[in-house]
Structures are given as structure tokens and as C-alpha cells.
Task: structure prediction
Amino acid sequence: MASTIFLAAGRRSLRVRALAGAALVTFLLQPGAFAADLTQAVVRQKVNIVTLAPSLSAASQPVAQGAVVRDENVVRTGTESRAELEFPDLTLARMGANSIFSFDAEARAISCQQGAALFSKPTSSGRIEVRAGAVTAAITGSTGFVSNQPMVHGAKARKGTAASADRTTMMGMLEGKLRGTATWRDRNGGQHSFAFKLGPGEMIVAQANRQPVVVQFDIPRFLATSPLITGFSGELPNQAQLNRAVAQYRTDERRGFLQPTNVLVSSQPLQVAWLSSSTVNHNSFDASVDQLGRGMRSTVPGDGGFVDVGGTGILRGQLVWNTSADLDLHLTLPDQQEVFFANRTVTFNNGRATAALDADNLGGNIDVPPSTRVENIVVNGVPLSGNYTFFVNSFSSGNGSDAFTLRVSSNGTVQVINGTLTPGQNSTPIVVPFRPGG
Result:
């Protein structure tokens, strides 16, 4: 895996046929004054192989630019191919490579069954649904993207956690706002849900068997590098709103509300942009990110004595030790949720912030030769005001005691504890009183 996606911590906040046990994310917006027209669409742009079929099970035939696509027809793109459809209300849908797309006039819904798609809907037109795997979104006027890809397996299972879901679904907003709920199932089959909001530069990642995650992404770099933007001619319907979203992003960046962090996520010829922050398991991101954008590899040096493992974040805690013991880093949030090996990613503050154990270590692997082992927790987005408590637990060890170092950074200040732990013991905590903006 060799390319990098950049996420940015910021202040801003089908008739569905879901697979059994699949995570379901539902977004709700106020309906528009006029009904959307999804009775047909015209193929305005196409590159390489684009085909059309009456249904998912029917044979596909090549389609020409200017062809009309009817309700419930299925459009497919091949490798290194793409297509743009335009609806009567001027809504645009752009498909990336290896994608499957359809729409339903009666339900006023567009669906990306596979691959990646960008949608852009004029503010004057009515409400439609956007569906991609585990994600269902109701929108009026807005611009965003979806990705629906098989997961890359091989992520480390941690102390009996459930296996990963079969697919990763992502949805992000370039401009516009939405509210939603997300449901997922734990390893015992229990269903959970939470409410959240998304605005410009925010994205949700959904999988069947883990809590969905809201993260930030870099809007200007997406617009500059994503083939869903650069691979097509002509402006999007909401170009003025996109320009305002970019201007707001730049303002937040200048004011220090955005703290970009380079994270190694993927390889392959990409189709999203530069995203940032390490908030979910990177292997889970691989296939989805490959269909969304183009990144460039970059290295972020460690600072304040931190080992260059994991992300940096608005707040960062890092545990370092040099024995084969299984030590664990924990973080207790102001709302009393806890981030640790059994709860690796937490979304809080009404979906505006995430805290994640982005580097986990069972004690058996060496992160930095010859003997250094590392666990790392980062907080990104718009965290709650309050106390953030980092501590270390000795989960298991064959030694009488194990030496460790705990570093915590916030607002340019680094606190350090050096100590030893016996099996089962907790360390002295580092408590960080945090207020967004300093």
C-alpha cells in the first residue's frame, strides 16, 4: 500500500435493499418546493467503456454520448472509464471507474450499487434520495460523493473483536448540510444507532459491524485532484456554493481550526482527493478511497519526542514500551466514553469529533526496530470542552514489571510520564483540560 489520503480536523461541523446485518445510514434534509424529475437522464459525457442495461440482471450494451437513460435502467462503467448523466432538473450524477448506477423515478432515488459517484443537485429542485450500499441520503440542493466498495480484509483482530464487514460505504459533502442517523450491529447482533450532522468537508464511513465514523476531508484538494471533478468538463450546478465552501475552508485553515495530518491509507490508481486524519482502520478505507481520489505520499516527522507511528490530531496520546508485554493505551472523553482496544473509534459532540486508537499493539509486533512498541490515540474534529484523561493499563505480561513512556500533546504542549507497571496495573493518568480554539 503506497499512496496517502489526507483528512483534516476542522471546526465545522433504492427503496433500500440492505444486506442482512448491514449498517444503515439515513440522512434527512428539508424537502424542496419542487418535485425532482428522475424519469430519465441524458449521457452528457463518457470516457472509454460505458454500458446500459434494462435491469441489473439483463445484458448490457454499449451506450453513446447523448443517449437517453430510462427509469430503472442500469449504467456501468469499465476500468479507466467514467460517465456523467444529466436529469431534467439539471441534477448531475458523475460515475467513476468500475461503477454501477441506476435511478428510480417513483422513489425519486439514485443508487450507486458499486464504485464511486458524485452528485450535484441545484438548490431550486426538489428532494431526492442518494443510495450507496449501507448509506441512504435525502438531499435537496447540495454536492457530495459516495463510494461503495468491498473491504480489504487483513486488519488485525483485537482480543476477540468481530470480523470486519464485507463493504465500506462512504458519503461526503462538498457543499450543503444534512442530518442523519446511523445503525450498525455489534458482534452479538445487537443493533445500535446515533444521530449526527454533516456539513461541507465532512464525511461518514459506514460498515455493518462497527460504529460509523464521521471524519473531515480537505475540500480544495478534493476539487483539485478527484477525477470525479477533473475528469469532466463544465461546472457543477452549485459552483457558487462550492466556491464559498472552499473560501470558508481556507479561512478556517488560516485561523488554525484545521490541522492536517498525513495518513498512509491506500495504493492503486485513485479516484477521491486528499483526505486527512487517522480515525478509522486504514485497511477498511483502502477499496473505498481507491474509487474517490488522488493522493501524494508525504511523511510527517515526529515532534515533541513522539515516535512517527499513528496520526497527530488536535489531541494526541502515545504509549511507547520495549518489552513483549501487552500494554494498552486508554482515553476517557469528557462525556465518559472510553477509547481503547475494544472501542477503537468513538464519534462524539453530536458527530462533530472523533477519537481513535489508530495504532494498536498486542506486544507481539515491533513498530520501530529493534524493540519499540507503540499505541497511539488521536482526537480530531471539534472536540467537547472538558477533561481528556489518558492512562496506560498492563493487559498481560510475563514480566514482573514493564517500563513505559506516555506522551500527550495539546495546543502545542507535550506532557510526559515515565513509569513501570505490573500486570493488571493502571498508570498515573495525564489529564488534559481542553477548550476548542485554545
Q: What stands out?
A: The domain at 9-219 is CATH 2.60.120.1440 (Jelly Rolls). The chain has four helices and 30 strands. The helical segments are 219-225, 227-230, 239-254, 282-290. The chain has two domains: 9-219, 315-434.
